[in-house]
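As described in the Methods, two query proteins were run sequentially through the folding procedure within a single session, without resetting any intermediate state between them. The first query and its resulting structure tokens are shown here.
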Amino acid sequence: MPHALIVDDDRDTREALAAIIAEDGLTTATAGDLRDARIQLVRQMPDVVFTDLKLPDGTGVDLFEDLDPRSGVEFVVITGHATVESAVSALKMGAADYLVKPINMQRVKSILARLPRAGDLKAEIGTLRGELRRMGRFGLMLGNSGVMQQVYDQISRVAPTAASVMLVGESGTGKEVAAQTLHQLSLRRKHAFLAVNCGAISPNLIESEMFGHERGAFTGADRQHKGYFERANGGTLFLDEITEMPIELQVKLLRVLETGMFMRVGTTKEIETDVRLIAATNRDPEQAVLEGKLRLDLYHRLNVFPIGLPPLRERGKDVELLAQSFLNELNEQHGTTKRFPPAVLEMMLSNAWPGNVRELKNYVQRAYIMSGPDSDSTATVPLQISLTSGKLRARIDIPFGTSLDEADRRLILATLEHCGGVKTRAAEVLGISLKTLYNRLVDYREAEAEESDEGDGRTTGVE
């Protein structure tokens, strides 16, 4: 059944409109201000919106701008005699019609009679989205395997709501792309989408980056800085590697989620924010809670709607679909028409892709580069570069009695060597963030430098 939303700060107007619209066979919802109207939009997307131009906390035009023009929602503005010009301006923006107060209810009926029922248009849009899904496209995501269709179903259900989402999946499975798709399909699509890698920010700066700081809050704070929560107001904030966020900051994050208020570093003045949170991790979040990496209360607050992203090895022929998409992008960028030889396609389909979609994309780019400018096919290059050499080993031996710090150091350095010095790959193999790996390497270098200085001192003393 078609649904109408009526937005007006005058109660009598709302009730009169609701009665006449209900007679025409539509269900109705009402709101007295912009805030309540946005809540109603989240609860149920209407087919028709009737809104006063002047509202206590904004204008009807603000509400109109919240709606995706592709949604098929019809928009009718209500205005007083003195603001007919504003109503005409709204028509130019795309509103279907306008009503002048006092409202002529017969005119309301005539508008309803000639308005195309947006339900029909939404059905057409739904059909179009269904076709795109069958072709393997859903927002920014790509893949038509059964497991991905399940992910699409989950995203389509939760995207229009205000619920927090927890994305769980191995590194390289496309968690940020999934978060961007959630944002694009939400009512916040016209506002900012900001992505934050919690493991890539120094622990000393992460609070300032998240909440901002005032000038003079600490050494080097020579100007006021707006943090992610302030810049993402009205939009979506994506917190990747949430388990890498310091525990003490998780407490403050929980407070923001519960109250919608935060304070910049260096001030006691609270700032209100309206942000939808999407969190992601490549760990088992429940295990992270047991290990003390993630607060239990924060986990429950973020895990309102969990979505698991499948690894590429479970997605069947999505490998070929993704690889072709990456190759098409390269062909478009460089004006070429290269294709995959059958042997390369077969090799890609049989590989496990431990680095998932990210690894596949890197492989396609490598095969494209190695093919040469005159070839119409990509090169047949190894799926992985061999790291085996005389001095590389597949295992390390740690004698009994070795301290945990020393064992940790040996394992990290040996893994980095085995990965050819590629820190991102070494971090993935070790199951730690890239930031953690960098910090450990800095510590090892500083320790070596201290040992070297002490050695020089002893030598000088002997001489």
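Immediately afterward, the second query was submitted; its sequence and tokens are:
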Amino acid sequence: MNYETTVAADAAAPYSADGGDLTGVPGESRSPNRRRWAIGAIAAAIILVAAFFFMSGGEEADPFAPPEAGQVPIVSVTAPGRATVAGTIEATGTLFARRELPVGSVGEGGRVISVSADEGDWVRQGQVLVTIDRSVQVQQIEGARAQIGVAQADLNLAQSNLDRALKLVDRGFISKADVDRLTATRDAARARVAVARATVGELQARTARLNIYAPASGLVLTRSVEPGQTVGAGGTPLFTIAQGGEMELRALLSEENLAKIAVGSSATVTPVSSEKSFTGQVWQISPTIDQQNRQGEARIALSYAPELRPGGFASATLSSGTVVAPLLPESAIQNDDDGRFVYVVGNDDRVRRTPVKTGAVTARGVTILEGLTGSEQVVLRAGGFLADGDKVKPQRAR
């Protein structure tokens, strides 16, 4: 009996409850490996279950995804009606002086002594802009004035001789022919005085024209003269002046838009170099259309402002009266290679592609000039997911 008991105890000692070998023989290293494999299998199972959960129902549906086959999409629609909208036309152009006055020398010219105006200065009508050396002309005037004195002395002598002759003619000492001769001499002397005076006046006028004056009040735009320079009549203008400082925008418009405006239409001009806008008025419309670009000019008069610089680029919004038309948000209007269009829901709840012509863009929406009467049910959004003829479930937008 003791033998059997000993054998049973010895046989149970080398093995654990799970059957592992704990005696140091090769089976002893298998127990940790099995545990690691078991833990990895459990983690993998958890990951697979979680992935299945999210893929099957845990992920939120995409509201912009196209409807599944057989499902009728719900779309928001609106009947735009008709509204009165102030018509506007957008245009761009270049700024110019409205009346640009070239100023040059009108006299004989000469050497410039001083220049009293520069670019950007305001000048008044008649102001001296350039002073020309007149030393020679002054001497000529003095000589002409001396000639007046000589001619006047000759006139006085001729008049005295004639007076004495008239006293002696009654006594018979002087013949009538002598009186006539003395009268002619007196008249010639009087004419020479008038000529001398006219010569002085001419020289004074020529001298006065040497200086260069502002022909009108305005803003000096350019200057091309310096002291010491020699100028002459008929040369390149020495100054250009914007009369009254007034500017204009020569806005380019298409042939269609040009027909929508009239002289007197208001406009808002914004230079690209400034965020400030200026109010102007159309004062002239081009009577012709450029054959190359099919555009014409609308000239918008603007009062002086430092931000308005000739040669600068500006945009303009012109008033073209009012128009009664449907208004739609931009989201309702689609665009492709064939042009702009909207989707209209018919009585059969199917959408129909409807081409439209748009007009002014306002804070309330886009004006529809052609294509809609305003009573249609127009799809507001999700037009990009629809096709002509699709069945939908319309829902009036609030």
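The chain has five domains: 2-55, 74-84+325-396, 90-99+244-321, 100-131+213-243, 134-209. We note this only descriptively and draw no conclusion about the first query from it.
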